[in-house]
Amino acid sequence: MKLKLSLINKHVLKVKEDLDFRADQGSQLIQKAEVNLIFGKIVPILSVHQGIVVLLKELVENMQGSAEVPQIVENTETGAELAQIFIDAYEELSQAYPPFLIYHEAIRGLIAAAQERNPDFRVYLMEKERSEEFGRKTFDDLFIRPVQRIPQLLNLLERLEKHTSAMNKQKVKEAIGLLDKMQKRACEAATQNDNFIQELSSYNEVEGLPVNLIV
């Protein structure tokens, strides 16, 4: 299995740019405000991963042999170097991921609603999904990938820990701890957000309830 250096599918961003261009030209498929709502929280993820990808490429190029995942996880020195990349990126990752993880279901709902409201938008997405660039993935699939990414990275780092020398193992443990912390914080925030929405829905069912009691 080859190491996939492109951690976030850039084709999502290409779709955003195209939709923005169409809106600017007066041939919009969805309103520009909707484009910003749908794509606004995935762009920071793409940005931070572009920096990570550069460092991963450098690490792979400095290795002897092919860039196979098993070789990376079994290289006792490389494990610590790879872990350091994610340690250094922690602050940016912790700012980019939680907002998307909290609202990704709402974002997917916006996409579905836009397709139902405008058949031309649905046809547009279907054409994109059939392209070679999308690799037989649906647009919805690409928006699920960031949700799956952190657990996958944690799994990789746990594999690295098993093959890292005792002297360098602490770096891998530190990276695991930071990503796990970020994931838990995002889950807690998502739960709080869901609870707030449920409470707000309950309040809205009470006719004439003063606003100050809701907020």
UniProtKB/TrEMBL annotation:
Output the Gene Ontology terms for molecular function.
GTPase activator activity; guanyl-nucleotide exchange factor activity
Please give an example of a GO cellular component term from this record.
nucleus
Q: Which PROSITE patterns match?
A: DH_2
Q: Name one GO biological process term.
A: regulation of cytokinesis, actomyosin contractile ring assembly
A family per Pfam: RhoGEF
> InterPro entries given for it?
DBL_dom_sf, DH_dom, Ect2
Q: Which residues form the DH domain?
A: 1-189
Taxonomy, superkingdom: Eukaryota
What residue intervals traverse the membrane?
A: none
For this protein, the record's PANTHER family field holds: PROTEIN ECT2
> What is the name of the protein in this document?
DH domain-containing protein
Query: From which lineage does this chain's organism come?
Result: Eukaryota, Metazoa, Ecdysozoa, Nematoda, Chromadorea
